[in-house]
Amino acid sequence: MESLLKPRSLRLLMVVMSITLSGAAGAALCPGADAAALSWLDKMSRSLHQVSYHGVVTLQRGDDMQVMQVSHSVEHGTSSEQLTQLTGQGAQVQRADHPLECIHPGHTLLRVGADLQAGRCGIAESYRFAVGDGERVAGRKAVRITIEPRDMYRFGYVMELDRETGLLLKTQTVGRGQKILEKFQFANLSYTGQSPGGAEVNVVHEAKHPHPLEPATTPLIGREWAVSWVPRGFTATDAQADNTGRRTYTDGLAVFSVFLEELGREIRSGEGVVRNGGTTSYTRGMRLTGQPVLVTVIGEVPVNTARMVADSVDWMLQHAD
């Protein structure tokens, strides 16, 4: 659920004077750090903790179009969400009672005021931002945020934010040559009333609340390992032990995970790539100091980024006591 509702999708989702002033100061220190655009990003990151809504959204990846009904409520210090597929398998994802005081790393990276006040560029080190008049989306007037990557390791985005609430109404993921890889937008949206029911649901998934300071439940492997390279600006999203089989990183807009699996047999060296819209799945069979392993990188990054991350995976050095 969270992956669908993050800033780039919805998950990619009143700016105060201190933010605006710090943004103006930071723009002078950080080329491309448009103060107004960064203030709108901050407002977007806070909207999920302030605004209740329901509506119908579309997600287009190439020729594939999915239609989903979404509802989000904020009350009594928590937020709850429900996402129901209206096409395809008819699956529903629910997440209840997410504490509003729990701010995950991706949202923290979008709240740029403290970074700029301290003389740090934050997410503006990785992207260039511009703000302009947006189109009307789901009957709402929007502000358009254009986000261009500063390097080849990430995608660009065009976001349309509700001019009143800051909610993400539409986003496009932009690849090389300005190719639109993925498009998400509200078809209709309401901030009042009850979410309509009646959709037939075949499968219900209960999403748990992950806490970034608590180790996730991930299978253990026999040795400690590390990812020695990620693009600048990416940070770990949770406190994984060194011998769990997963690492996850975000720069505030994009997220990717790295999985390592020890194999009990030889595997043919090689790589496999599957791309679905703005999501890349990259798999490589390799040997680490003689041990056959399978490394998989899944997330919202280009193939070459996933390949370089996989190349950097290695065992951690064992220190004698």
Give structural notes.
The chain is 16% helix and 40% strand. With 321 residues, the protein is of the alpha+beta class. The chain has two domains: 2-206, outer membrane lipoprotein receptor (LolB), chain A (Clam), CATH 2.50.20; 225-315, MucB/RseB, C-terminal domain (Phosphorylase Kinase, domain 1, 2-Layer Sandwich). The strands form three sheets. A ten-stranded mixed β-sheet has the order 5-6-7-8-9-1-2-3-4-10, with helices on one face. Helix 2 (17-29) crosses helix 3 (35-47).
Helix-strand layout with pairing:
Blueprint: H1 2-5, H2 17-29, H3 35-47, E1 53-61, E2 64-75, E3 78-85, E4 91-99, H4 105-110, H5 113-117, E5 127-133, E6 142-149, E7 156-162, E8 168-174, E9 180-190, E10 203-206, E11 225-227, E12 235-236, E13 246-250, E14 255-262, E15 270-276, E16 279-288, E17 291-299, H6 303-311, E18 313-315
Parallel strand pairs: 4-10
Antiparallel strand pairs: 1-2, 1-9, 2-3, 3-4, 5-6, 6-7, 7-8, 8-9, 11-18, 12-13, 13-14, 14-17, 15-16, 16-17
Helix pairs in contact: 2-3
Quick take:
By secondary structure, the chain is of the alpha+beta class. It has 6 helices and 18 strands. The chain folds into 2 domains: 2-206, outer membrane lipoprotein receptor (LolB), chain A; 225-315, 2-Layer Sandwich (Phosphorylase Kinase, domain 1).
Shape: globular
Q: How many structural domains?
A: 2
Mean pLDDT: 80
Helix/strand structural class: alpha+beta
Roughly how much helix do the residues carry, as a percent range? Answer: 10-25%
CATH class assignment of the largest domain: Mainly Beta
The protein's oligomeric status is: single chain
Output the CATH topology of the largest domain: outer membrane lipoprotein receptor (LolB), chain A
Radius of gyration: 20 Å
Share in β-strands: 35-45%
| The CATH fourth-level homologous superfamily of the largest domain | Lipoprotein localisation LolA/LolB/LppX
Alpha-carbon distance between the two ends: 44 Å
Number of extended strands? 18
Summarize the helix and strand pattern as letters.
HHHEEEEHHEEEEEEEEEEEEEHE
